[in-house]
Each structure stands twice: as structure tokens, then as C-alpha cells.
Amino acid sequence: MPDARDKRPADPGLSDIRGRMLVLEVAAMTSLALVLDTSGEDGGKMGRGILHLIREAVGNKCDEMGLSDNASTTAQAYAEELIGTALATLYPSTH
Q: 22 pLDDT exceeds 80?
């Protein structure tokens, strides 16, 4: 049973979805940046493993959902964009 204090509509609108996406992107990039930090004892070994798992999971999920080639390519490109942003946050260019 939904909480009576929850004022969100059952069918979210575009602005609601955009807001949620923003939060998910920030959480994902922050989490990735923390995991990819190579200053730990393992020198980034765990981070590289997690990157591999993310890429593999996105591909598997696209297959599982039966996404078109175009949608799968878009999903994989978006995953790479998030990974790239997290890496750029950790290692900003010096020029």
C-alpha cells in the first residue's frame, strides 16, 4: 500500500523522470569515482574488474530485455560516458 505522504503521481511525467535520472547519474558517477580510485592498496585492480562487470552487465541486460541494436548501442555508449566522466573526475587533464 502506498504511503499517503507520497505525493508523486503513479505515472511520472518527463520532468520527474529527468530529475530521477539526474540523481542516478550523480550517484553512479560518485560511486564509480570512489571505486576507480587507484590510490588504494590494490592499485586499481578492483576498479578495472568493476568496469568489466559494468560493461558486461549492460550488454547482458540489453540482450535480456530484447533491445534493438540501436537501443543496445545507445545503452553501451551511455555506460561508457558515465565511466568516462567518473575517470575525468578522478584524473582531470592538466592542460
A: yes
| Residues in contact with 50: Cβ distance below 8 Å, sequence separation at least 6, in sequence order | 32, 35, 36
Q: List phi, psi (to 5°) of 41.
A: -65, -30
Q: What is the pLDDT of residue 8?
A: 60
Contact 75, 67 (CB under 8 A): yes
DSSP string computed for the chain: ---TT--S-SS--HHHHHHHHHHHHHHHHHHHHHHH-TTSTTTTHHHHHHHHHHHHHHHHHHHHHT--HHHHHHHHHHHHHHHHHHHHHHS----
